[in-house]
Amino acid sequence: MEHLRYPIGRFERIEHPTQSDRNKWVTDVAETADRLRSTVLNFNQEQRLTPYRPDGWTVQQVVHHMADNDMNAFLRFKRALTEDSPVASSYREDLWAELSDYQLPLEASIQLLESIHIRFVAVLRSLDPSDYKKTFTSSVLGVLSLEVALQRFVWHDRHHIAQIATLKERMGW
Question: How far apart are the C-alpha atoms of 127 and 50, rounded to whole Å?
């Protein structure tokens, strides 16, 4: 079950990233919506409502969750840039996944991801290396630097796209 839940493995932090690492992550952010769109392209209703693993979320829930997560992550990131180590809000992702907006077409959240990522990339490209040392506090993860937060952000989106891609491969879609 672990390989279905974490098809790219669990998050592993890079301790001393280089500017080249950061540039790669910014590129990943810029390309996420396109990668997601191509992964779910032409999914029918049954495929969208298929869980990526037993007792897991459906493809539809995963896609909408990605938009919710990235909205929240972008706001936490901006707060850390403009406030002194703010406490980041959390949300009940399990309950959000049950709300009616998770019934919308996948493209609604993919377009939202595109818009968030355009703005996020603009912010990221303007940062000095010292900005990545700024922090916020997460109720779940404790104090996080923006350097680690960006790594987690990129991993999170890759992780969910891989969940969908491995489901697609297993099912022969």
Answer: 40
Q: How many helices (H) and strands (E) does the chain have?
A: 7, 2
Could you tell me which residues come within 8 angstroms of residue 85 by beta carbon, excluding any fewer than 6 positions away? Answer: 134, 135, 136, 137, 143
pLDDT tens track for 121-146: 999 999 999 999 999 999 999 999 99
CA-nearest of 158, 109, 116 to 6 is 158
Q: Take residue 59 and report the two structure tokens written for it.
A: 């493809």
Question: Contact at 8 Å (CB) between 40 and 106?
Answer: yes
pTM of the full predicted structure?
A: 0.96
The predicted pLDDT at position 1 comes to 85
Q: Is 47 helix (H, G, I), strand (E, B) or coil?
A: helix
